[in-house]
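Bug #2210: token dump truncated for Paraoxonase?
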Amino acid sequence: MRKLVALTLLGASLASVWQRFLAFRDKLNISQKEEPVEPQNCHLVEGIEYGSEDIDILPSGLAFISSGLKYPGMPNFAPDEPGKIFLMNLNEQNPRAQALKISDGFDQELFNPHGISTFIDKDYTVYLYVVNHPHMKSTVEIFKFEEQQRSLVHLKTIKHKLLKRVNDIVVLGPEQFYATRDHYFTSFFMSLIEMILDLRWCYVLFYSPREVKVVAKGFNSANGITVSPDQKYVYVADVMAKNIHVMKKHDNGDLTQLKVIQLDTLVDNLTVDPATGDILAGCHPNPLKLLFYNPEDPPGSEVLRIQNVLSEEPGVSTVYANNGSVLQGSSVASVYQGKMLIGTIFHKALYCEL
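Reproduced locally. Full output below:
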């Protein structure tokens, strides 16, 4: 009798795992094809060859680009090259990317930049916050931007027990930010199991010098994060759930979920159009091609614009879509005065005049 009960429980467990695997496979959009949507005035950014995972554009038109991310399970074309931060001036007629120098005293050989966010102080000093993965761990690095020297001065490394598997960051004030955790486990294999089993153990954390706390949880994979222009709302991408969480921000850093915008593609990083308040999302239309990279059939790229975010029916439109023939593995898009930069996890970057 015990053997029969054990076999019954085993069979039920295997059936449950199989159902979860089938649901996970459906999430990967295996059969989805990209219908091309490509603005006419676009070209690849010269000098960026090994990724442009996140982009943050200042109100002045200076764009910071993180490059060279080494991420478990993702392709990497330069595994022995340290990461870099590039700068582009979008006010120039033909803007070019320039790698910024980083001050002495910072271990550049271990620099593995992921999500980035800028903060402008009252005296107009620009600070760049970078999610870094030295030895595949997670820290947040604070740099001061020296515009005349085109350099970054390293000020501080932030570590905390809650800063694990950090993906993206949005800065609100001096040493005050939200950060996302995209997986609970650190190894690629266990992260894959985590996604198949739909564990939802990921979260958003609030960091300040006085308090560090989890302010939202229950995500499949909390990824990109950004804030509305008035800083009243925070937007979080759950990449595996194919949605964007819209949350109200409170003065103490807590977040209250207002709604979830469901999409048909895997959402990576988020930015906000400062002129309209629209969300721009870098997306992965066929992520299976990321996990099993084939240069003959590369992953495509997709950028969505979400309008009227707080309304009952936000408008969703495709700004850019390509099957990988031009741009592979789009992770972010950011706009400035009719110009758009599209970044990728491991590939190139695209500059468009809209």
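Output looks complete on our side. The helical segments are 2-27, 188-196, 288-291. Marking as cannot-reproduce; reopen if the truncation happens again.
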